[in-house]
Write a structure and sequence with these properties.
- The protein has about 375 residues and is α/β, with parallel strands linked by helices.
- Helix content is about 45%, strand content about 20%.
- It has two domains: about 120 residues, 3-Layer(aba) Sandwich (Rossmann fold), CATH 3.40.50; about 240 residues, no CATH class.
- Strands 7-6-8-9-10-11-13-12 form an eight-stranded mixed sheet, with helices on both faces. Strands 2-3-4-1-5 form a five-stranded parallel sheet, sandwiched between helices.
- The protein is globular.
């Protein structure tokens, strides 16, 4: 299937170097190869392949290649300075695409060495909007498939659900065994795996690292570092509470969600909320990458413990609120109150199983699948 980002990256390659980051096995290499197929004499070079690595080190790719793809280049020592020299000294009209995951995304946040030379895109798992566009499926069918399989291409497109489960077990083991060692010590792997299993049962709940640290018999500081590693590896992402005072928001407990909804070990409500979180994050990232908009995703919680699942913000101001429910169309009083307080932002109650959409006061009650299909990506 063609991904939403394909034509956008194609356009950007004609202007600057492009960085494509995202979770492992989210389809970065497949997307890169599909782009390469449209360019004359393109070369795809993967650092993990010995022959390709030799070509990279000797810079012996064809000067006639109109597109050169460097896959997993961030594993090369000193790759940033090396890439700057390659880009500045490339043949006229030669495009460069760099793909990677954890280390590439970490670099992307600093932008050192290559400022002004690249555009950056983040590839997320498949969304309702993307599958509807690619297959012609209804939004409801697309959401149902994501909740059953998760949004990563291989399990999502698998012939049988059991194939998706077999992929997911292997994926989690491979990421923990191989990728985490880039950031951590081998003796911490067991604790990291236990931590991941704990997070799988706590999706959508404020996360107390102090409490989990006691259960794992490690310090809260160590557990905070584990969480940063899992975020860097695109296994989980955190959603922090909205507050106009950003320093105060950072001190409050975050909620944790998985990029792969299939990893959630909870009931249907937890999986549904995780899927909504993942698609809202992709929506925010798409607006950042495509238009440079300062988007962020939060949740809302007041002193009485009343919550709203998601607050989408731009320049730290709310532009939309969303609460997720499986079947209950009753509007939570706090959502109605927030909608009145921020009338220009818009508030939606996203119901997985809803007979009829309607507008009640300032709150729009929506079929979740249809609403998710209207997001930007």
């Amino acid at each position: 299937m063609e991904r939403t980002l394909t034509p956008l990256i194609q356009t950007d390659l004609g202007r600057k170097m492009v960085f494509l980051s995202g979770p492992r096995q989210s389809g970065k290499t497949t997307l890169a190869r599909s782009l390469a197929a449209a360019w004359p004499d393109a070369q795809v070079l993967n650092w993990d392949v010995a022959d390709d690595r030799r070509v990279i080190l000797h810079q012996s790719w064809s000067p006639r290649a109109r597109l050169v793809v460097f896959d997993e280049l961030h594993k090369m020592r000193g790759w940033k300075v090396w890439l700057k020299g390659v880009y500045d000294g490339r043949q006229e009209g030669q495009a460069i695409l760099v793909t990677g995951s954890a280390r590439l995304e970490t670099f992307r946040q600093s932008g050192e060495s290559l400022a002004g030379r690249y555009f950056a895109w983040r590839l997320h798992p498949i969304t309702v909007k993307e599958w509807v566009a690619a297959s012609g499926a209804t939004p409801e069918a697309a959401l149902g498939r994501i909740l059953e399989r998760g949004g990563f291409p291989e399990p999502f497109l698998a012939d049988e659900p059991v194939d998706a489960e077999r992929w997911r077990q292997r994926y989690l083991e491979d990421v923990i065994r191989e990728d985490i060692l880039e950031f951590s010590r081998i003796g911490e792997i067991r604790a990291m795996r236990l931590f991941v299993d704990m997070l799988r049962t706590r999706v959508g709940s404020p996360l107390s690292l102090a409490s989990l640290a006691r259960d794992l018999q490690v310090s809260p500081t160590t557990l905070g570092r584990y969480l940063e590693i899992l975020e860097a590896l695109h296994i989980v992402f955190t959603v922090r509470p909205f507050h106009r005072n950003i320093a105060r928001a950072l001190l409050k407990e975050p909620k944790v969600y998985f990029f792969d909804t299939g990893l959630v070990n909870g009931d249907d409500g937890a999986r549904f909320e995780n899927a909504c979180a993942a698609m809202l994050l992709r929506h925010a990232h798409f607006l950042q990458d495509s238009a440079g908009r300062a988007m962020s995703l939060h949740y809302v919680r007041d002193k009485e413990g009343r919550e709203i699942d998601f607050a989408l913000c731009e320049n730290d101001e709310p532009v939309g609120f969303a609460e997720c429910k499986l079947s209950d169309p009753a509007i939570p009083p706090y959502l109605a109150s927030i909608a009145e307080r921020f009338p220009s932002a818009g508030a939606s109650l996203l119901v997985r199983y809803l007979r009829q959409p309607e507008l009640r006061g300032r709150v729009s009650v929506e079929r979740a699948a249809d609403w998710l299909a209207t997001l930007s990506a």
